[in-house]
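Lay summary

Proteins are chains of building blocks that fold into shapes. Our project writes down both the chain and a compact code for its shape. Here are two examples, one after the other.
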Amino acid sequence: MEAPIENDLCTRIKRSEQALMAHHEAVLRAYGLTMTQYTVLLILSREGGMSGAQLARSCGVTQQTMSSVLTNMENKELIHRETSPVHGKVQIATLTDEGRALFDHAYQEVIVLEDALTNAFTPAEHASLCELLERATTVLTEQTRHATAPPAT
């Protein structure tokens, strides 16, 4: 007999992810941002200018989705795009002052959850949980590669 579904690690990871997304979406809605838009603002605030392809990889979305996200963000004047000096067909996205200000305000609310989660664990538990989640992510990524690889002939 199999263990109850509550013991299934994939189910627990999914429930945690859903709770995290629900919280972030509720907070970000007040700022007119989606989770992907917020993630773009976060990445650009830390990394500086990036191409749409780089942002798509960082956010875990397709390039087509990122193109739409960036167009929407540019229309809201949250980002500015200009042609890369290295490659004429590549557009580099950077934060505008408005994008930086909106990110800074939203981040102050998002960080409340990060602090609450951090404070829910001892420093050793926090470090262990981070390591365990990284290990789980590695396994999930590897399994996904195997699941999408063509069958060996």
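And here is the second example, written the same way.
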Amino acid sequence: MAGIGLFRIFDPKVRRHLISDEGEVVIDEVRHHWVVFALPMLEVVIAAALLVTMAVTTIGAQPVLLAIVLILLVHAFWQFLTEHRDRFVVTNMRVMRIRGVFSQTVATTPIARVLDITLQKPIIGRMLGYGHFVFESAAQDQGFREIKWVSRPDDRDLTIQRVIQRTGLRASASVDVLQGDEDSDDDGTGPIGMDSAQEVSGSYAPVTAVTKPAAESRPAPSHGAKSIFNSERGNWIDNE
């Protein structure tokens, strides 16, 4: 428990970057796979072996060996902090990448700008359970081009695809509502026969009189129907 508490001290504090008053919540916070810590751990083991050697033997060059031990430990700790504080975050509104130890870089882009995602899983990655994401989008110049060493890549890919799909549907509905949804009865953003304004509001707006005598009136659905685009936090939590 003490070790877990120590790790949390070095967390990048992702939630301080959320727009909480607008209902933004974290869908997934992606940390690097444990394989990235293999080199720092190896350096720690080598440093420990050198210390044991210095303690049980009387070989010369003690100051040199001690300097090597300190360099290995400092470098291992720096690598640990760098990898531990590199986070890729998916929310219900956008994607973020937070990096840096002393100086921090926070790159963000709306989730709707993420166009294509390529999941790369090398042979060793398939055995150890990690992969790399390559994003083809308008966000690739902001640090989202490659997200490497992602643990459980298949689950993370499905999560991102779900968020993109839901956000795309919500964005289409919002545009149609702002435009008055005058293009057609069924704009393709919801079930057949239901326009976007109805999906968002959950009920039909009053129908104005039409000049064509052959115009057909729409059947009024029940006013208690719940919107399928409810933006409450519960709809965005991945229960799988």
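What can we say about the second shape? Helices lie at 2-9, 38-56, 62-84, 123-128, 153-178, 196-201.
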